[in-house]
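Batch job 17 of 40 flagged for manual review because the log was empty.
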Amino acid sequence: MRTPAEAVISLPVKVTAADVTLNGNLSLPSGATGLVAFAHGSGSSRYSSRNRAVADVLQHARLGTLLLDLLTEREERIDVITAEFRFDIPLLAQRVVAAIDWAATFPQTSSLSLGLFGASTGAAAALIAAAERPAVVRAVVSRGGRPDLADAALERVAAPTLLIVGGRDEVVIQLNREAFARLKAPKQLQIVSGATHLFEERGALDEVSRLARDWFVQYLG
């Protein structure tokens, strides 16, 4: 059942993580049945066109979305030059955990089942956060992610996990297969034929959105 775009309420939010404040965009469709928080990676932000496209599909399936900047503006400026923060997985995971805790107390989202959508290094952060909050996180989806960087947390993830990789992203496919073997929770590995790392090919991102939607609807409904 699709929710009309005008029935989605969007508002800017701020999440406190340790000693920093992170900016986010919360979108809630009428009658939302769950909430998906996005963990961006590789220098991306809440304005990522790819993640916003996925978020739009989720919203039409009556799932709320939280697109959050995991880095502050200052950190982003540094990261553009050094790339040091995008690979600081413990830092990113700590901030995803902060977003989970924020959603659990924010009045409009506290009653919603929570899932995590991670891209690139953000996927590792999402999996670590899921392992840290097993009673809260109900599902995880990784798009072109680096779940291998979650390392020892992989065996502790209790949430059903879907790994999506482009069929032409050979190195990342192998890394995902290795991580997949270590996951103990219900899991699937989906390879999108003909797609490269960023899923820029015609129809590739649509397939990612469909797979993510179906996974979250199954486990957050």
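Reviewer: the log was empty due to a logging misconfiguration, but the result itself is present. The chain has one domain: 5-220. Unflagging and moving on to job 18.
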